[in-house]
Structure of HPr family phosphocarrier protein:
Amino acid sequence: MSNNAAIVDISQTANQFRSSIVLQAESKYIDVKSILGLFTTLVSGHSYELHVHGPDAEEAKAAMAEVFSKHNLQVRVVSE
């Protein structure tokens, strides 16, 4: 299965927000607004943590959780 659609969708969703949105996959941290970063990291079956900071963090968290689940990707949105 190709994750291209998921990657574009996730990146486009992230870019709608001013908040910093960072995906943690094991020991790597990826800026979700970077399509290239996602390409090298996003693999089905992994579980990810999403760290969101900024002025519209609450809306960003909700939108990101939705887009990840839409593509059947496991993500835990971390509330700091």
Q: What stands out?
A: The domain at 4-78 is CATH 3.30.1340.10 (Histidine-containing Protein; Chain: A;). The chain has a mean pLDDT of 88.
